[in-house]
Amino acid sequence: MRALLFSSQHYDQESFTRAASGSTLELHFQPARLTLDTAALASGYEVVCAFINDELDAPVLQRLAAGGTRLIALRSAGYNHVDLAEAQRLGLAVVRVPAYSPHAVAEHAVALILALNRRLHRAYNRTREGDFTLHGLTGFDLHGKTVGVVGTGQIGAAFARIMAGFGCQLLAYDPYPNPELLALGARYLSMPELLREARIISLHCPLTEHTRHLINAQSLAHLQPGAMLINTGRGALVDTPALIDALKSGQLGYLGLDVYEEEAQLFFEDRSDLPLQDDVLARLLTFPNVIITAHQAFLTREALDAIAAITLDNINRWAAGNPQNLVMG
User: What are the residue boundaries of the D-isomer specific 2-hydroxyacid dehydrogenase catalytic domain, all occurrences included (predicted)?
Assistant: First the structure.
């Protein structure tokens, strides 16, 4: 059986090659992103392994099915980029990696908080240029601050544990309260209440029709002036133009993003020699109190190994007629 991995980077090749050692599964790595134009590359491959920014809409799925693909193996937890109704119509099974290393994403969210609070990005650039002054680098103690956790699944819970270790007071929002957070002393509130009370808000919820643009102009108006917002979840959880307005007014004091709604054409590519065509992202990058990383929160050795192992196990179990982690099949 052959599998083609779209959007594969060098680290994918390393982790999947290690995980597939001794397996009869034949892996092929394709750095190109899966689109309607590149779908033909999968002709003859029974399994297509896709990542979060690959296109899996109806036309792409139709072309894959016509080329002999029977399984879409996602290397991610999120699957809102897959047309599940069309996959079902075509008889395509879809599997995912529901959890790999919640610590990886949670720790990256904390890294963004620390870097923004202590202005590490500005301090780093200054000292490299011989400027050792401290003007404009004053932060605040995390101890005793109120942190709002939006989405309290595995990643949100891991994040909450870390922030509790700093001595933060925890607030939470989730339709299904997590006993682990309650044991940490977290209070579950409505979203407007959480936004009003929290000094720091971190998003860890999935992207659904109900959470799309969860953070918008109306919800941002509830923030304490100067609050910090962190998004390591999905880009479309926030209305980016509304974030810009809130940054300009000072309502939002700090912004850390590892995801961006229009990231598909940008992230995971080296575009350093090209003009940035995305005016919204370009505007965000002008703010000194904004840090953007390119969807790297998952990128730890442990997470990569787990993603590879679970993905290959998903493929092998499907081939054996005992599928697991099915989204559609």
Answer: 4-327
